[in-house]
Write a structure and sequence with these properties.
transport (chains A, B); homodimer; PhoU-like_sf (chains A, B); cytoplasm (chains A, B); 85% helix; Methane Monooxygenase Hydroxylase, Chain G, domain 1; phosphate transport (chains A, B); globular; mainly alpha; Phosphate-specific transport system accessory protein PhoU (chains A, B)
Chain lengths: 234, 234
Amino acid sequence: MPSKHTLTHFDTELESIRKRLLEMGGLVAQQLSRAIEALSSGDMATIEAVIEDDRRVNEEEVALDDACILLIARHGPTAGDLRMVMTMIQMITDLERVGDEAKKIAKAGRQIIGSDVVFVPKVELRHVAAMVIDMLQRALDAFARMDPSSSADIARQDKEVDAIFKGIMRQLITYMMEDPRLITRALDVLFIAKSIERIGDHAKNVSEYVVYMVRGRDVRHEGIEALERESRVR
Amino acid sequence: MPSKHTLTHFDTELESIRKRLLEMGGLVAQQLSRAIEALSSGDMATIEAVIEDDRRVNEEEVALDDACILLIARHGPTAGDLRMVMTMIQMITDLERVGDEAKKIAKAGRQIIGSDVVFVPKVELRHVAAMVIDMLQRALDAFARMDPSSSADIARQDKEVDAIFKGIMRQLITYMMEDPRLITRALDVLFIAKSIERIGDHAKNVSEYVVYMVRGRDVRHEGIEALERESRVR
């Protein structure tokens, strides 16, 4: 039976990791929005900064994983406390991958900005990027407030993002057919859209972990109906 | 201090999870190889079976995650034991994503088989798929034997896979430029190649977790030199 002293230590450490994890979430959301912004404005310095800053995200992944494992080793949490730490460990992985996708977007952006491509569907990319940033922020907010009520909504947004991605792909195919010389650059744009779509998946993952954390039920692979059920106020 | 009784229970449970995890690894490797095989032979029944069987992979992900969390809650492992459980938790996620990619390959394969596409670079796709299956099996084997010595090699294979992917992409761009009507189908092939390339990333992740498990050092993001160092026999 842990002493009250131990419990307090656990809570303090947990709170500190939770705070850093939310900061990491803020950082990767910012990385994405900077990459998309720079793609529109052609600002190469920002592109390079996004690529460079992915290192910070990677370092944070390693440090936070360490902190979570140390927390388990020191305090042997069970039940809700353990679910909370497990949720954080899963979230760290997803947030790091969001950082990776932002870096890939910046790298593809570098190719595009340097060339004379004029057909980049900037409006659509900005629109879908704004959607996944919103999803990510709502998922992080759900984690911060331990409130899974947005999860079904986020899953619905994810379906919408998939549909927009398909629309962008069709548009790019039209461009490529009209002028096959554009194919190489169009594929850079396609991979950017694909990265944004994947970030939507990661945001959905995070929101599903929050359901698990709060409700103790694993709703991955169970569809929007299960999320609807679990996200209702009890 | 846990009793001997508790320790034995822990070891038995750990061994059972370890075995199931290796079976899950075998299953997803098989999913990939069936998807690629069916793409070559045009066997639509296998394509559908791969898509259907992804459900088993998802169920196994949820069940194994549960088992790991229960193991921690019951026994409060520390040090090497805890690292082992953490490694397994990370591996479960990567293996599930390998299953997802195999399913995506099968779905893209369904589009291609149904059409009259003749330019699919079957030899290259089979070659690169065989490479990532080898990487995956070596990584699983490293986990089974708790032997990180293959990790630098696997990281090198991953670089080779990336290079082959770029080659396939260039080849597809040539096809698309020659006959823009092929663009839609060529993109299906491109996404298949991309999925295979991602499976290589997952295999590399698994092999890096094994280094962490055995050496206690987190070598993600540190490059091949760190893997070389840690994979040397001590």
